Amino acid sequence: LIAALFFAIILTGIVYQWRTMRKDAHPKNLSLEGRGRWKNIHRFTSLFTLPFQALYSVTGASLALGLFLAAPAVYLFFGGKTDALNTALFPGLMATAPPPAEGAPFPLDEAIAKANAHWPENVSLRLIQLANLGPEHGNPATRTIKLHGKQDGAHLVGTHLLTLDGNLNILHDQTPTSHLAPMLIEGLVNFHFATFNVLLIKLLFVIGGFIVSLSIGAGVMIFLQRRQQGSTKNSRLTPLLEFLTHWTVGGLTLATAISLH
Prior knowledge:
Layout: H1 2-23, H2 37-48, H3 50-77, H4 82-89, H5 108-118, E1 123-133, E2 142-151, E3 159-165, E4 170-174, H6 180-193, H7 199-229, H8 237-259
Antiparallel strand pairs: 1-2, 2-3, 3-4
Helix pairs in contact: 1-3, 2-7, 3-6, 7-8
């Protein structure tokens, strides 16, 4: 809901400020003097971070909407079975294995070697999940090895997933584009959280987020200026909002440095 409202604010702001925003596109029109400096900063930063803001709000709303619609989707399309929904969304993680041989060791090294041989050369192993479940509720024991690989370099979707049983038989082979639902989820997550395998893209997202926060802070300062113009006596809330705005925008630099440490 918050992401959807954020997108609505962006859209209405563009419609309302479009004529003046076109003039603010040139840095020479950016003035940091006088009472109008916060309005200039707000328009200038909003204009240049517009694609970033739209992307962030749309992907955030899409991810949250998917979680919100998961519960009704289970009952409408999957007969109330959560495992069936998870199998449709994450088939490699829900693959079932035949009962393992009693006392057989878990062939982890052989599984890693098989995954490396199966994947292209530009795929690196990132995560290994072992599932050794005993018999319960009438279901036989299962043993699976899930190996997650990631393509090197910048890719919108680049996750490989290989699911093997205890005898190293392939139960599920997932490439970045072989299954639609995991591909869409990975793309949304990468765009929203900047989980690309390239430091430069992460830094660009950090800079974009900082500028967006500066735009929001400038918008708050505009609101405070208009609030003060309409009354001779300041509200008790006004100094608090000024204090929080300055420290929030100023503290973003420190927060960014800590997050990248």
